[in-house]
Amino acid sequence: MIEKQRDLSLYLPVYLIAIVIYIIAGIVEPVFFTWNNNINLFTRITPLVLAALAQTFVILTGGIDLSIGSIISLTNVVSASLFCLNKLEYITMVLFIVPLLGLATGLINGFIITKGEFSPLIVTLATGAIWQGVALIIMPIPGGEVDLSISRTLTGKIFNLIPFPLLIFLFFIFISYFILKKTEFGRSIYALGGNETIAYESGIACKKIKFMAYGVSGVLGAFTGIFLSAWIFSGDPLVGSPYILNSIAVAVIGGTSLSGGKGGVLGIIGGAYIFLLISNILNLWGISTFYQYVVKGLIIIFALIISAGGLIKLRNFLVSFYFDKIIKNWKGGEQKYYKH
Amino acid sequence: MNRNIINIEDSKIFNFILKNKIIIFLYFSILVLFILGTILSRGFISYDHVLSILRIASFLGIVSMGQTIVILTGGIDLSVGSLITMGNLFTCMFINGINSNTLWVLIVMILLGSLFGSFNGFGIAYLKIPPLVMTLALGSVLTGINLIFTRGAGKGLASPILRYISTGRLFDFISLIILIWAVLSVFFILLLNSFTFGRKIYYIGANEKAAFLSGIKTNLIKTLAYSISGATSSLTGALMAGYTVTAFLGIGNEYILWSITAVVIGGTSLTGGKGGYLGTIAGCILLVLIESILTVAQIPEAGRRIANGLLILILISIYFKKR
């Protein structure tokens, strides 16, 4: 009950802001509310949601995954080169082999981090460089071809009604929610993200859990890569690089704390919508893409200030700045009193 | 009998080696790499080539100064890339090929860099935003500012004096930029080791709470560390303008990864409080050397990235081995 209330207070602001932004976008451009535009939004949001899910699993353990961009690029390139063979066996192969590849990359990250007790930051930076290199070897320039029927299925509608991307990201969010909240593995992730020493002392195999969390992150990264290859019809060895910042940003806006152990996956859709809709609105207003970098950066900073409880700290800082003199005088007077 | 035996653990030289084994290992491997390069190509160890390696390393070295001090406090600065680009673009734009503009533009660039750096520091120290995301987000803001001011294409030219500073040689013997790097390095190592400010940085990195409780103004020192990082990165961008002559929008991107790599393979721990700039210097030279050897061996871009990644993994597994 308490947990549900806490979750509600965590996710409610995110969705309120997302809805406000959505309505503003609709007022600026009435076409925005049409079903077709929403289908388009579902398609655009799916890779963002999947990448943020991947990042959330790692952030909840108190780590960070900077190699997620390269994992996405690598799996995108591999699945694009398999998709272009255009046979049913190969297509089914993609859906098995590429997630396995993602799992392998994630587990290698997890293995190095847990075995050597290194900082996740530098390890994923290094492995990210390696996966990026491998992706560039497989496909030095954007290329490959994805059969149109596959793309139409993955980004299209089922029974001409329900958009497939919506199903994809709802499915993954449901699965992730289930894993995090209902299984022992998920609860252990929260426990060790909150305080690793206590988690270890209460009998949780921290290293194993961390190792597996990176593995899950890799698998989700692989699904992002597959979806991207279907969406852009081809493979691009650098397609994943924006997702490093974006996945962290969406996870944080969605309510997950970077120090680990706090947050979850339910805020991700709202976070992704905020992130995406703002650049959409700026586009609709005809503002140059140059300003979007500034706006996105400021949004992330603002979200972080709120999520770190920074508004209270800012107020305290300002108060102490203005009332420093008064407090000092008061303290001085007190000391005088004691001297006498 | 016992009095005559010299206890090896008491000897100063032994202690020095033990304390600085990472640095000694690094400089030794630089030597080995030079020999390897000479085997691959005969001109590798020629005076001109060594100078050119040092010249490229000096740009990296100046950025890594700021990165070192930030990592020593236990943070990280991912905004160096955009700050370098900003320094580069604005220097070219303001100098516009005129010598008399050079001095004030350089000063303004340093001030501007430290201003943006202290934004980082304020967010991280006072508002308790995690350094990784704060600097990443400010980097995104700065990229936007760069694009807005230049409309997507660099304008202007570097002045002849700046070009001389970045590429010229003093008395036809040593490059001026290497001298600048050397002078800044000496000052910086002194700052870290002999001044209270430097000692406080180490304390904060080792244990921030204890440092705060023992009366150090941790937030102020941290903010200063980030503003130094901002200043050095934007100075690097300005000096690079002399090297590239015209402005280039993507100039700083590589340096985010490079500067962190140089600091980490220089033996500074990412958790803070351990390491120093002497190792970072070796790390910078090592990185540029390896890049140069890979170029000589004609290895493509993909291979270089893999080699860089492997290098980091191997070196951190050597340094931070569990006992």
List keywords for this structure.
heterodimer, A: 340 residues, mainly alpha, two-stranded antiparallel ribbon, 14 helices, B: 323 residues, ABC transporter involved in vitamin B12 uptake, BtuC, globular
Task: Present the secondary structure layout.
The complex is a heterodimer of chains A (340) and B (323).
Chain A: H1 2-28, H2 35-60, H3 68-83, H4 88-116, H5 120-138, H6 148-155, E1 157-158, E2 162-163, H7 164-182, H8 184-194, H9 196-201, H10 206-231, H11 242-253, H12 268-284, H13 289-307, H14 310-339
Antiparallel strand pairs in A: 1-2
Helix pairs in contact in A: 1-12, 2-7, 2-10, 2-11, 2-12, 3-4, 3-5, 3-10, 4-5, 4-10, 6-10, 7-8, 8-10, 11-12, 12-13
Chain B: H1 12-19, H2 21-40, H3 47-72, H4 80-95, H5 102-126, H6 131-150, H7 160-167, E1 169-170, E2 174-175, H8 176-194, H9 196-206, H10 208-213, H11 218-244, H12 253-265, H13 277-296, H14 301-319
Antiparallel strand pairs in B: 1-2
